């Protein structure tokens, strides 16, 4: 069993950037578990299948290939919306959690980021971070990202979307978004990514000394 770093938090809190940097620093493999929900949603959309049939969605979830997840293909807004709808289905979650747990056993260690890593997927992980920021800051970051990539964006619409996504992630009955009791909270509202990384690194280094 490798060393698992669990990173949870709401959409657009900076988990992805932080997770990739941690994985690179420690030579660990990284899985953005949101992509597994997105890949399932995209496969359903591409095949013209319904998003509200749990049995069909579970079957598709069981066929997701963790090696073929590409954020650039899965980033589209409609895919994120569809992903958050199928993420409420317990049998879809069970299928994807099993695949995520298999990934988490890779050596020498892994970084998993998502919503329920510290609470459900890898509850015995030695390092759990809960990365958050205010909805205003998260919406502005997403807006800046889109504009920097040459796209057009509407800050009010993105803000409304961030709030709606939070409600769905926090309010679902199965594995709702919440910090594990033993998670370290990192509020990045007024913290640079560098400061967040340094805080995470101290916690990880301390946990690595204990094994
Ligand atoms: O992080 P993201 O935007 O790529 O996630 C897309 C959706 O997938 C999100 O609305 C909630 C869901 N998700 C989840 O339920 N559990 C996870 N571990 C990761 C994502």
Structural topology:
Blueprint: E1 3-8, H1 15-26, E2 29-32, H2 34-46, H3 54-62, H4 71-74, H5 77-86, H6 90-104, E3 109-114, H7 117-121, E4 127-132, H8 135-148, H9 155-171, E5 184-187, H10 193-209
Parallel strand pairs: 1-3, 1-4, 2-3, 4-5
Bound molecules: 2'-deoxycytidine-5'-monophosphate.
Question: Key terms for this structure?
Answer:
Rossmann fold, single chain, 10 helices, binds 2'-deoxycytidine-5'-monophosphate, 211 residues, five-stranded parallel sheet, 55% helix, alpha/beta, 12% strand
CATH topology of the largest domain: Rossmann fold
CATH class of the largest domain: Alpha Beta
Determine the fraction of residues in helical runs and give it as a percent range. 40-55%
Class by alpha and beta content = alpha/beta
Mean pLDDT: 95
Quantity of strands, as a count: 5
**Ions, cofactors and other bound molecules:** 2'-deoxycytidine-5'-monophosphate
Shape: globular
First and last CA, distance: 12 Å
N-to-C order of helices and strands: EHEHHHHHEHEHHEH
- Largest sheet data: 5 strands, parallel
Portion in beta strands: 5-15%
Side-by-side strand order of the widest sheet? 2-3-1-4-5
Summary, kept brief:
By secondary structure, the chain is an alpha/beta fold. Helices cover 55% and strands 12% of the residues.
Structure characterization notes:
The structure is a single chain. The protein has 211 residues and is of the alpha/beta class. It has two domains: 1-28 and 110-204, Rossmann fold; 33-107, no CATH class. The chain contains ten helices and five strands; from the N terminus they run E-H-E-H-H-H-H-H-E-H-E-H-H-E-H. It has a five-stranded parallel beta sheet with strand order 2-3-1-4-5, with helices on both faces. Helix 8 (135-148) packs across helix 9 (155-171). The longest helix is centred in the C-terminal third of the chain and has 17 residues, at 155-171. The two termini are 12 Å apart. The model has no long low-confidence stretch (mean pLDDT 95). 2'-deoxycytidine-5'-monophosphate (DC) binds next to helix 2, helix 5 and helix 9.
């Amino acid at each position: 069993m490798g060393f698992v770093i669990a990173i949870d938090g709401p959409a657009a809190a900076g988990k992805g950037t932080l997770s990739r940097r941690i994985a690179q620093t420690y030579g660990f493999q990284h899985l953005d578990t949101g992509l597994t929900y997105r890949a399932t949603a995209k496969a359903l959309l591409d095949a013209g299948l319904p998003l509200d049939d749990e049995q069909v969605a579970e079957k598709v979830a069981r066929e997701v290939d963790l090696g073929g997840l590409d954020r650039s293909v899965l980033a589209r807004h409609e895919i994120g919306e569809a992903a958050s709808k199928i993420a409420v289905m317990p049998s879809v979650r069970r299928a994807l959690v099993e695949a995520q747990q298999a990934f988490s056993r890779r050596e020498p260690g892994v970084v998993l980021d998502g919503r329920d890593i510290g609470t459900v997927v890898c509850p015995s992980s030695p390092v759990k971070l809960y990365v958050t920021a205010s909805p205003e800051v998260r919406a502005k970051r997403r807006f800046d990202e889109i504009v920097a990539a040459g796209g057009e964006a509407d800050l009010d619409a993105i803000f409304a979307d961030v709030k709606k996504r939070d409600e769905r992630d926090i309010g679902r009955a199965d594995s709702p978004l919440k910090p594990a009791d033993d998670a370290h909270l990192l509020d990045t509202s007024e913290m640079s990514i560098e400061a967040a990384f340094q805080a995470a690194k101290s916690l990880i280094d301390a946990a690595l000394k204990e094994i």
